[in-house]
Amino acid sequence: MNKLTQTILLGSLTLGAISPITTQASKNKKPNFVIIYTDDLGYGDLSCYGNPTIRTPHLDQMASEGIKFTQFYVAAPVCTPSRAALMTGSYPKRVGLHEHVLFPRSKKGLNPKEQTIATLLKEQGYTTGCVGKWHLGHQKKFLPVSHGFDMFFGMPFSNDMSRKEQYLLGSKKDYGYSLPVISQADTLELDPDQSYLTKRLTEKSVEFIHQNKKEPFFLYFAQPMPHIPIYASDDFQGKSKRGKYGDTIEEIDWSVGQILQALKDAKVAENTLVLFSSDNGPWKVYKTEGGSAGPLRGAKGTTWEGGMREPFIAWWPGTIKPQQLCTEVVTNMDILPTFCKLANAQLPKEKIDGQDISDLFFNPRKTLEERPFYYYTKQGKISAVRKGAWKLILQKEGAELYNIEEDISEDYNLAKKHPEKVKQLKTMLEKFDQQMDKEKRQAGLVETK
Question: CA–CA separation, 361 vs 370, rounded Å?
Answer without folding.
Answer: 18
